[in-house]
Write a structure and sequence with these properties.
The chain has two helices and no strands. The chain is mainly α. Helix 1 runs antiparallel to helix 2. The longest helix is centred in the middle third of the chain and has 29 residues. The N and C termini lie far apart (45 Å).
Length: 58
Amino acid sequence: MNGHHHHSGISGISRHKEVERLKWVLAITLILMIAEIVGGVLSKSLALLADAGHMFTD
């Protein structure tokens, strides 16, 4: 008897749900990045602009 099994993921989440979650996370990250850019420009904060740039490269 072979005990070898194939699973699509650790929690068994379907590929479609994984893609949907990724889209939501990317959208939230983009919104926060834009907010940091706007806040950084309005407040002339180099720290916020640098963090927004860091978020973009991630």
